[in-house]
Amino acid sequence: MDRILVTEQIAEAGLAALREHAQVDLRTDLDQVALLALLPEYDALIVRSATKVTAEVLAAGTRLRVVGRAGTGVDNIDVTAATARGTLVVNAPAANSVAAAELAISLICALSRHIAQADASMRAGKWERAKFMGSQITGKTLGLVGLGRIGAEVARRARGLELQVLAYDPVVSTDRAAQIGVTLVSLDDLIAQSDIISVHVPLLDSTRHLINAERLAQMKPGTFIINAARGGIVDEAALLAALESGQIGGAALDVFEVEPPTNSQLIGHPRVVTTPHLGASTVEAQATAGLDVAEGVLTALAGGTPSYAVNAPFVPPEEWGVIAPYLKLGRQLGAICTGMVRDPIQSYEFEYRGELAGVATAAVRLAVLQGLLSSLSEQRVTPVNAPLLARERGLKYSEFATEEAESYTGLLVVRAITAEGSHDFAGTVIRDEPNVVEIDGYWVSFVPSSSLLFTYHTDRPGMIGTVGTLLGSADVNISGMFVGRLAPREKAMMVLTLDDPVPSHVIEQLEQEPDIHRAVGLTL
């Protein structure tokens, strides 16, 4: 019988499911030394957030076939080391979706009707009916920033409350949004049209301070802000200023940039409702997490593929020579596509040309999906879980293969289809190194770096100098520069590979230049 070590308390339902098929030892008293000593006896390890599953721990687990995390994130698990050892990592990312969605709806209602403030007034012995005049949410417009699992659950409940629901999510298809009853819009349109804005995206470099002073100023006067996702998505200092000025009507916060929070002015503000990170704090959510991780661990021990596997699948050695460099290219093209296309995407097309047409391209497809989703998902996106995440978001794609690859040995094309047209992103492999050769219709040739800058501009003398000067003033070093243009002195695209990420204020300065139509900074 397989042996499973559980080092942190999980729901009894999860433990019961495990005990039906394996010998389970619940040991919440282990320090690092004791854990290392015990692990050689176990086939599986289940943790929550306190146990650190380091490379040393994994090396000690000579029998370990799977590590389970009873929750969403896997930050406390060295997934790279686990993958290198062939140890599967599973988690329970869907367990708290309903709980978090219900909290978001509760916060909307509490904010609209001043419930927390009225309760505090009553407890103080007061009767202040006139002071707490509220507003109905029926007929209002709710804007959801993010339409993943939790965002979709919020949308379903909001429609039952007769809210009009808009959503911004560059990966979710228009068909998927229509099924939920949501209208996909750009982030700018959502900001301008919503009466209530609720964020449901992970905290990444691309989403940190996504709701900042500039976007707060663009909202309708009196807009309500809800954040039950991650602290740091909303700029707390900018939010406090907007509340003080009256631009923002109120805010409900379950998460904070520093937890426990230190911004006492924001916490004590009369138009702010706060809760101590309660998104997943329901009996049902904890039970679901326990059951989900139990199912995943047992499936892995039985030799199957769990629904919520985190690390990458095996690539057959005979395919590795051709496929390996295209995996990195696929992730890069997917990430660039997500970062560059603003309009709601109806579907994608993946084209495999030349040498790619003669091999099994499943691994490349998974790498592209990983790139498309990575900047938009809180959990680690790998080729294992990318298809599941893509299905949840209604991401639609088709694939084509052709032996013709123009002047390249092989060519990978990622095409995003929108109502306005298509956007092509293509690349090849030269000396085993990914090279991007087409960006949104402009022919270029560059090896992607971790930091990139793209400008759509009018081709004229001095443009390169203008961009270089602004980057230089911000101490951003340029490692490479590439320009694609439709014709001399007409539309053009400049691509800069950089040693450092582009600060947001530099992007704003670039877009203020008269001949620069759009600037995009990406971190891959």
Walkthrough of the structure:
The protein has about 525 residues and is an alpha/beta fold. The strands form four sheets. It has a seven-stranded parallel sheet, with helices on both faces. Strands 14-13-15-16-17-18 form a six-stranded mixed sheet, covered by helices on one side. A hairpin with a 5-residue loop joins strand 20 and strand 21. The longest helix is centred in the middle third of the chain and has 24 residues. The chain is globular, with a radius of gyration of 25 Å. It starts with a strand and ends with a strand. The relative contact order is 0.10. The model has no long low-confidence stretch (mean pLDDT about 90).
Q: Give the tally of β-strands.
A: 22
Radius of gyration: 25 Å
In order across it, which strands form the biggest sheet?
8-7-6-9-10-11-12
Number of domains: 4
Cα separation of the termini: 44 Å
Structural class: alpha/beta
User: Which stretches of 5+ consecutive residues score pLDDT under 50?
Assistant: none
The CATH topology annotation of the largest domain reads as: Rossmann fold
